[in-house]
Amino acid sequence: EAGRLWGGRFTGKTDPVMEQFNASISYDKRLWKADIQGSQAYVKALEQAGLVSPEERLAIHHGLEKVAIEWSEDRFVLQPSDEDIHTANERRLKELIGSAAGKLHTGRSRNDQVATDMRLWLREQLQILRSFMVQLIQVICTRAQQDIHILMPGYTHLQRAQPIRWSHWLLSYAFMLQRDVQRLDQLMDRVNVLPLGCGALAGNPFNVDRQLLARELNFPAVALNSLDGTSDRDFVAEFLFWASMTSVHLSKWAEDLIIYSTKEFSFVLLADAYSTGSSLMPQKKNPDSLELIRGKSGRMYGRCTSLMMTLKGLPSTYNKDLQEDKEGMFDVCDTMTGVLQVAIGVISTLKVNQEACLAALSPDMLATDLAYFLVNKGVPFREAHSLSGECVALAEKKQCKLSELSVRDFESVSASFDASVTKVWDYENSVEQYRSIGGTSRASVQQQIARLQVWLAEQ
Ligand code: ARG
């Protein structure tokens, strides 16, 4: 059949539905640049191995440049026979330079080609995603510094637990995201392994210099086993897991802010730029940006699961199932790019309502501090915990706030209480107790920012 690269042994036609079903060009055309880069490197290795002449190499190289320009100017005209990006580019090259184009694929297979293209493509995208991640951590640090004076309730089980600094809450996400950047760097090392020269599965019979290919394409390592090199998609799965994990962190962050932005909490006010209204209820201002960040984490997790399912149970080396690796990778890249940009925008434009955060604090959240008061008087913690609990019960009985109990009330619970117990009812003092590394005191939060800033300066 005309135009097909593998048609030689076929006499029958492909069913048109099958042709459509088999084709990946509608989405893998995004790999056009990587595909051309890979081919330009490969033709150099072919020249060095004596399989193409210097003139043929130049003709192929320049022909590929022309194909690249067509793509970049959106002038590349797809033909019905273009099954995927590899066949499309080679078909066009042949039209432009003639029969020399037929030498380009010597010893190469679409199996090592597509694996190479995907690594080249993903590598570039990972750099972009990485820089958004670093930017997000930077914005978090800036806000944490700016809002360090703001106190708010810290929650466990979504129940008010202990007073903390707003910045302490915010910075917890900087550390999650920092680990995500570290994970990204680690997976990058595994993306950065070159499969080109692995052929269809058995390797390259023309002694092409794979180290030369690696230098040309700027890969620090080559795949050392051709069976593995052509069919390893761990790197895609790892990327999808990375995005899932990162988006789970961002989903948690978004969920916190969605709660904090309700009228009931009013801790934060989302900028108009990241909110939407209701077509029915005129008063509504909805946190759609945050809801979508939360929602898209499900989508990315789904893509990860989906690839794992595809890989599970495959026999050795290339199987067409592997063509299913691409849409998820592209989609997750695009989705993550949007998520990170919106997260950066939301956090840099968010207004924090200091008064509402403070007003949400209540003396019962200092019951732990009341126990610590007794600990400082020499009472063992277990006993102090129980005595403080008795004070809470007494306040409940008297239907007053814990801080409204009289000194005499406290003394009735334990002789270790005295008039200085009133000093406990100070939220600022409360957070300032947590001076050990990692705590919520000003100094400790400042230290967190400083450590992150050192790291950021190295990025
Ligand atoms: N479009 C194919 C893919 O994405 C390219 C590799 C085809 N290889 C093959 N042996 N049919 O996986």
Automatic annotation (TrEMBL):
GO terms (BP aspect): L-arginine biosynthetic process via ornithine
Domain of life assignment: Eukaryota
Gene3D superfamilies: Fumarase/aspartase (C-terminal domain), Fumarase/aspartase (Central domain), Fumarase/aspartase (N-terminal domain)
Protein name: Argininosuccinate lyase
Keyword Secreted tagged: no
One cellular-component annotation, GO: cytosol
TM spans (from-to): none
Keyword annotations: Amino-acid biosynthesis, Lyase
Residue ranges of domain Fumarate lyase N-terminal in the record: 8-302
Stated family: Belongs to the lyase 1 family. Argininosuccinate lyase subfamily.
GO molecular function, one term: argininosuccinate lyase activity
Keyword Transport: no
InterPro entries, sorted: Arg_succ_lyase_C, Argininosuccinate_lyase, Fumarase/histidase_N, Fumarate_lyase_CS, Fumarate_lyase_fam, Fumarate_lyase_N, L-Aspartase-like
